TrEMBL record:
InterPro entries: P-loop_NTPase, SRP54, SRP54_GTPase_dom. The keyword GTP-binding applies. This is Signal recognition particle 54 kDa protein 2. GO terms for cellular component: cytosol; signal recognition particle, endoplasmic reticulum targeting. Keywords: GTP-binding, Nucleotide-binding.
């Protein structure tokens, strides 16, 4: 998405797309998720945010505040603590609501821990993103 050497990736309006944000803690995932969603909302997309960060206390409150301000629907289970289950529930809900850009924010860590990558893979596999959701422009 940000690599200038590659053709820019763009979701298509009305077609289901899913974007998962992955990075180390404090690198700007939650902030960028909302900016990305807001940018697309202004272009006429129906974006939605799923908070699959169960690691950092306050992660959901932060997302909730940003998303509410930007008027973007968001999801996070208050009862579940498994990020994979939360991601699946959120993605399912927004698919049913015909959102065309579902953005999943994941947990960051302080360094590249193997557990983080395992969790990312599990979230990705469990949410079954569409095969070619986002095509080069
Ligand atoms: N100056 C600046 N600060 C940012 C930017 N994106 C995020 N931040 C700040 O960096 C900190 C961490 O961002 P956050 O989105 O919570 O990162 P996350 O831990 O990866 O979700 C917060 O204090 C943000 O306000 C940016 O583009 N510019
Ligand atoms: Mg975050």
């Amino acid at each position: 998405m940000l690599d200038p050497r590659k053709p820019p990736l763009a979701p298509a309006k009305g077609k289901p797309s899913m974007v998962m944000f992955i990075s180390l803690q404090g690198s700007g995932k939650t902030t960028t998720c909302t900016k990305y969603a807001d940018q697309h909302r202004r272009k006429g997309f129906r974006p939605a945010l799923v908070c699959a960060d169960t690691f950092r206390a306050g992660a959901f409150d932060q997302l909730k505040q940003n998303a509410s301000k930007a008027k973007i629907p968001f999801y996070r289970s208050y009862v579940k603590s498994d990020p994979v289950k939360i991601a699946v529930e959120g993605v399912d809900r927004f698919r049913k609501e015909k959102c065309d850009l579902i953005i999943v924010g994941t947990s960051g860590r302080h360094k590249q821990e193997a557990a983080l990558f395992k969790e990312m893979r599990q979230v990705l596999e469990a949410t079954k993103p569409p095969k070619s959701p986002i095509a080069p422009r």
